[in-house]
């Protein structure tokens, strides 16, 4: 598990390898990740958007941006957390992801970014 705190918002990420399959005659490696967003600040905040960079071992980079997470824009009061699962496909058995969430502080009405720490994706059978 990797963790990082930005402006009182703690991000924790755990990853899993889900398996392999063929898509368009190419092997794909499926990974899942569980993200917990915990508000350790004194203010209520809302997650409005996400921005990811997904890297694989073949130097391919995919950028994913969009509103909310899994169709939601959670509001977190002090001490509250939001957990969700998602996944990605890679064309190699190794990779990594990192990014940030765009959030708004309800007390100050200011927007801010919360860093999502870099986390590794690796298929267990490919590890030496």
UniProtKB/TrEMBL annotation:
InterPro entries recorded: ApaG_domain (IPR007474), ApaG_sf (IPR036767)
Top-level lineage group: Bacteria
Residue ranges occupied by any ApaG domain in the UniProt entry: 3-128
GO terms of biological process kind: error-free translesion synthesis
Name of the protein described by the UniProt record: Co2+/Mg2+ efflux protein ApaG
């Amino acid at each position: 598990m990797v963790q990082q705190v930005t402006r009182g918002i703690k991000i924790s990420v755990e990853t899993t390898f889900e398996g392999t399959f063929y898509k368009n005659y190419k092997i794909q490696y499926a990974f899942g990740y569980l993200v917990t967003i915990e508000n350790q600040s004194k203010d209520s905040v809302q997650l409005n958007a996400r921005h990811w960079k997904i890297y694989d071992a073949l130097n391919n980079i995919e950028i994913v941006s969009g509103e909310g997470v899994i169709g939601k824009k959670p509001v977190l009061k002090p001490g509250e957390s939001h957990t969700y699962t998602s996944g990605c496909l890679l064309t190699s058995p190794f990779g990594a992801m990192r990014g940030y969430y765009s959030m708004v502080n309800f007390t100050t009405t200011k927007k801010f970014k919360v860093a999502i720490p870099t986390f590794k994706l690796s298929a267990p059978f490919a590890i030496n």
